[in-house]
Design a protein that fits this description.
The complex is a heterodimer of chains A (116) and B (111).
Chain A (H helix, E strand, L loop, with lengths): L3 E4 L2 E4 L5 E7 L4 E9 L6 E7 L5 E2 L8 E7 L2 E6 L8 E9 L7 E2 L3 E5 L1
Parallel strand pairs in A: 2-11
Antiparallel strand pairs in A: 1-3, 3-8, 4-5, 4-9, 5-6, 7-8, 9-10, 9-11
Chain B lengths: L2 E3 L3 E5 L4 E8 L3 E9 L6 E6 L3 E5 L2 E6 L4 E6 L8 E9 L5 E4 L3 E6 L1
Parallel strand pairs in B: 2-11
Antiparallel strand pairs in B: 1-3, 3-8, 4-5, 4-9, 6-7, 7-8, 9-10, 9-11
Classes of the chains: A mainly beta (116), B mainly beta (111).
Chain lengths: 116, 111
C-alpha cells in the first residue's frame, strides 16, 4: 500500500523559534498533499492544501505567513511553523493523494510539536 | 460548507456490537470515509462508501444513505484493541474532492 512518512515524529522547541516538518510519499507520486492540525481530544482540522509546484491554499483562520508550506516535488511537502508559540503545540498530520487514484488520502504518522 | 455530526463518546462491551452514526450536509457529496485513530497516531482507513448500501469488511461494516445524509459504522465482535476514535469524513467535489472530518467518536471497549 501507499506509504507516507513524516519527520520528525516529535519535536520540542522554544518559543520564538521555527520548526520544519517534512511529509514524504515513499512509493507513489502525490500531486496533492494536505496538512492537518489536531488538538487533544479533537478531530483533524485542515490547515492547507498544497499542489506540487503551486502555492498552497490555506483554510480560513490559518495564517499563511506563520505556517509556510512548500510542495516542491511530487514526493515532498514541508510545513514550517515560524516563530512558534505554546499555542501552536499540537499534532500535525499530513496526507497525500496520488496522481493515479484520487479515491483515497494516505496519512502520515503525524508529528507531535511541543513549544515551551 | 459542510456539517458533519457524530456522537462524541460511546462505550461498549468486549464481544458486543456497536454502531457509530454520522450525519452530514454537503453540497457536492462524493464519498464518505471512516477512519480509525488510536491516541497519538495518525488515522487509518477503514471504509469508503459512495453509493447507498452496506459495505462489509471483516468485523467492520459501513452503511450509507445519500438521501438521508446518513452513514453508520458497525463494529462486530468488539475487541479491546478497538478502543479508539472513529472519524467520519466526507469528500466534496465542490471543494476539490477535499475531505472534511467530523469531530470523531471516542469508543471505549470494556471487558
Amino acid at each position: 500500500g501507499a506509504v507516507v512518512s513524516q519527520h520528525p515524529s516529535w519535536v520540542i522547541c522554544k518559543s520564538g523559534t521555527s520548526v520544519k516538518i517534512e511529509c514524504r510519499s515513499l512509493d507513489f507520486q502525490a500531486t496533492t498533499m494536505f496538512w492537518y492540525r489536531q488538538f487533544p481530544k479533537q478531530s483533524l482540522m485542515l490547515m492547507a492544501t498544497s499542489n506540487e509546484g503551486s502555492k498552497a491554499t490555506y483554510e480560513q483562520g490559518v495564517e499563511k505567513d506563520k505556517f509556510l508550506i512548500n510542495h516542491a516535488s511530487l514526493t515532498l511537502s514541508t510545513l514550517t511553523v515560524t516563530s512558534a508559540h505554546p499555542e501552536d503545540s499540537s499534532f500535525y498530520i499530513c496526507s497525500a493523494r496520488g496522481t493515479a487514484n484520487t479515491y483515497e488520502q494516505y496519512f502520515g504518522p503525524g508529528t507531535r510539536l511541543t513549544v515551551t | 460548507g459542510q456539517n458533519i455530526d457524530q456522537p462524541t463518546e460511546m462505550t461498549a462491551t468486549e464481544g458486543a456490537i456497536v454502531q457509530i452514526n454520522c450525519t452530514y450536509q454537503t453540497s457536492g457529496f462524493n464519498g464518505l470515509f471512516w477512519y480509525q485513530q488510536h491516541a497519538g497516531e495518525a488515522p487509518t482507513f477503514l471504509s469508503y462508501n459512495v453509493l447507498d448500501g452496506l459495505e462489509e469488511k471483516g468485523r467492520f461494516s459501513s452503511f450509507l444513505s445519500r438521501s438521508k445524509g446518513y452513514s453508520y459504522l458497525l463494529l462486530k465482535e468488539l475487541q479491546m484493541k478497538d478502543s479508539a476514535s472513529y472519524l467520519c469524513a466526507v469528500r466534496d467535489n465542490n471543494a476539490g474532492n477535499m475531505l472534511t472530518f467530523g469531530g470523531g467518536t471516542r469508543l471505549m471497549v470494556k471487558p
